[in-house]
């Protein structure tokens, strides 16, 4: 049976509104109201009323063609999430991105997933991989996912952590950094280090590229320098 009294949302309307924001974020492009309704599994009129409310608060907007997209107000809200962490991490992420010529990003734990909090692309790279803030993937999957998982006690691991993931984690812990290839997005390679901070959710910083693993140790060393600097700045 799907859902129980204890795990059902207290407000179905609020839950649906939040789900629309997630749908638009996952889509990565503006959607027609009919498509929003289909993915939300509600009648078009219900989706329309929800979208109008979100538009009123600036959380969604319309393109010239009338399609629905995320609104600019979300950027202001996102900037307030872990504001001190983002503020202290931003200069370090920027320095790493420009030093190594790769996109550098910060992820934090959100229940059983890792969410990208902020991301910086290198200033002078001819081509770089975009890592969109707000993007998420399961805990334990990919280098950042395992880096965050390494900061959790075994008793707090979600049921989705398989023996294979645990074995990968233990091998990575032995060298002090995590590497992944083709795990979250095909053809992408990531290197990550854990970022333990008092008073904050488990986090990690990582770089992502289309390259191979030959530079992993050097990239990890540079990431660790940044992680140490962030911890010192925050007092973690």
Describe this structure in words.
This protein is α+β, with helices and mostly antiparallel strands and 236 residues long. The protein has 2 domains: 12-76, Arc Repressor Mutant, subunit A; 81-234, Beta-Lactamase. 43% of the residues lie in helices and 18% in strands. It has 8 helices and 8 strands. It has helices at residues 12-27, 33-40, 44-56, 73-79, 83-100, 142-149, 163-175, 216-234; strands at 60-62, 68-70, 103-110, 113-120, 136-138, 178-181, 189-195, 203-209. Strands 5-4-3-8-7-6 form a 6-stranded antiparallel sheet. Strands 1-2 form a two-stranded antiparallel ribbon. Strand 3 (103-110) and strand 4 form a beta hairpin. The longest helix is centred in the last third of the chain and has 19 residues, at 216-234. The protein is globular and about 55 Å long. The N and C termini lie far apart (43 Å).
């Amino acid at each position: 049976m799907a859902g129980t009294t204890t795990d059902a949302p207290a407000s179905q309307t609020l839950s649906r509104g939040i789900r629309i924001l997630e749908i638009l974020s996952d889509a990565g492009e503006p959607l027609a109201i009919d498509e929003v309704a289909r993915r939300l599994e509600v009648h078009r009129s219900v989706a329309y009323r929800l979208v109008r409310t979100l538009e009123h608060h600036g959380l969604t907007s319309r393109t010239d063609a009338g399609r629905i997209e995320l609104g600019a107000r979300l950027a202001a809200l996102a900037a307030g999430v872990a504001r001190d962490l983002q503020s202290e991490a931003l200069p370090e992420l920027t320095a790493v991105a420009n030093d190594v010529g790769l996109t550098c990003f910060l992820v934090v734990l959100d229940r059983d997933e890792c969410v990208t909090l902020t991301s910086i692309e290198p200033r002078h790279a001819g081509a770089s991989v975009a890592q969109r803030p707000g993007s998420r993937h399961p805990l334990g999957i990919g280098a950042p996912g395992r880096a965050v998982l390494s900061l959790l006690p075994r008793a707090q691991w979600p049921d989705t952590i398989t023996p294979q993931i645990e074995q990968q984690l233990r091998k990575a812990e032995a060298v002090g950094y995590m590497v992944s290839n083709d795990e979250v997005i095909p053809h992408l390679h990531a290197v990550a280090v854990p970022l333990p901070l008092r008073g904050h959710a488990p986090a990690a910083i990582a770089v992502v590229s289309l390259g191979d693993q030959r530079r992993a140790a050097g990239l990890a060393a540079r990431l660790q320098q940044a992680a140490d600097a962030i911890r010192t700045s925050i007092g973690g």
